[in-house]
Amino acid sequence: ADFCTASTFNIKPGEFINIKVTDTGSGIKAEHLNKIFEPFYTTKQQGSGSGLGLSTVYGTINSHQGAIKVDSQIGVGTVFNIYLPLAKEDIEISTITKNNNNTITGSGTILLVDDEEIIRKTVGMLLEELGYNVILADNGQEAVKIYTQQHDNIDLVITDMIMPVMNGREAFYKFKKIDPNCKVIISSGFTRDENLDEMKTHGLCGFIKKPCKNSELSQLIYNVLNT
């Protein structure tokens, strides 16, 4: 109970699983420790990190009523302790059946941006089945180059947030600079919506969490293209 009361996380007394991740790296400076979970905060050089990795971890653990604690020493290494509540009840595993009854077809050209090849191919095939022409890009920089050349023919951009070279946030503002009326959807496992508020004020059309149902994605695309 004392641990839960002192924690900044909304956790309740009970049985927890403790996962400890330890490295023998260079360590984290004291002035950075209280900032490492902030979205977009990074000490890496530009293009080497988005600053969203630990923020996503924090959000995921928090959403599961857990907690995370970090200790670090310069020249010694870092220890992350993750606490997740132990599920006492049996977990029911159900079979997920594919249901396309609620998908909405459409037309137009979509620029799909994601650094994971399997996601690009899978979502690209889905979009084609829904009736859209699809252009693929594996990072924000490539997407901006494509959009610069073909923006007159692109009706919508769907981009991941966390990518190497150039992330989705940076690419979004470059799309808007090329065409202020550009329609963009962010698709990401990153769930802390409050950090998308600034992008929304600059014309972000929508956000969908990965993984998503085909019907949800098709409906969001339809709504954005027809608004």
Give an overview in words.
The chain is α/β, with parallel strands linked by helices and 227 residues long. The chain is built from 8 helices and 8 strands; from the N terminus they run αβααβββαβαβαβαβα. A 5-stranded parallel β-sheet has the order 5-4-6-7-8, sandwiched between helices. It has a 3-stranded antiparallel β-sheet with strand order 1-3-2, covered by helices on one side. Strand 6, helix 6 (168-178) and strand 7 form a beta-alpha-beta unit. The longest helix is centred in the middle third of the chain and has 13 residues, at 117-129.
The helical percent reads 25-40%
Number of helices: 8
Q: Based on the structure, what is the oligomeric state of the protein chains? A: single chain
Q: Regions with pLDDT < 50 over 5+ consecutive residues?
A: 95-100
User: How many strands in all?
Assistant: 8
Percentage of residues in strands: 15-25%
Mind telling me the C-alpha Rg? 20 Å
Structural class: alpha/beta
The end-to-end distance, rounded to whole angstroms, is 50 Å
Rough outline: globular
